[in-house]
Amino acid sequence: MSSRPSRGTKGESPVAAWDPLRELTGLKERLNRLFETALRRGGGSDAGEFSGWAPAVDLREEREAFVLMAEVPGVPKGGIQLRLEGRTLTLEGERPMARESRQAEHLRVERTYGPFSRSVQLPGGVDERRVVARVSQGVLEVRLPKMARGRGNPVRIRVG
What pLDDT, in 10s, does the model give residues 90-133? Predict the structure, then answer.
């Protein structure tokens, strides 16, 4: 039995050999187009529950405070909301696509846009009255001074 592709009989077209790598490449391209379309929509209701992105966060414990650092480049300072409820810190906002980008035909979209929400469990209670948040060079820093026990009442935190 020959491993070469069949040339067919007289009058038939040749049969091409199946190429799994070609199939995978085609699938990858279709998936990339699907994700790019979802991201261009901004992750809103048109794109279902796909939110597009969430900022990367680091949480460290210092002697007197917990410190959360979050990457939020492109998010306007006024577009970040922080809420502390018990030992849960929630970070919400939206990274908008530039107006020029929304009106252009994209050849490639790799950056992510749209709304985001992240919640982080803190290992201990926080003195809600002394929490400080600021943004510098696209990084949000939230200092959460430790307290013997948390109050549990929701608290909004102003980003400065």
Answer: 999 999 887 776 677 878 878 888 899 999 999 999 998 999 99
Which helix (H) or strand (E) element contains residue 20?
helix 20-40
Q: Are 138 and 114 in contact (CB under 8 A)?
A: no
The CA-CA-CA angle for residues 117, 37, 101, to 5°, reads 80
Q: In the numeric block, which tokens belong to residue 89?
A: 């810190």
C-alpha 80 chain-centroid distance: 14
Please, are residues 128 and 105 in contact by the beta-carbon 8 Å criterion? Answer: no
Torsion angle, alpha carbons of 99, 104, 107, 111, to 10: 10
Average pLDDT over residues 80-84: 94
Per-domain boundaries in the chain: 16-160
Residue percentage of the chain with pLDDT more than 70 = 73
Instruction: Look at domain 16-160 and name its CATH class.
Output: mainly beta
DSSP string of 41-58, one letter each residue: TTTSGGGTT-------EE
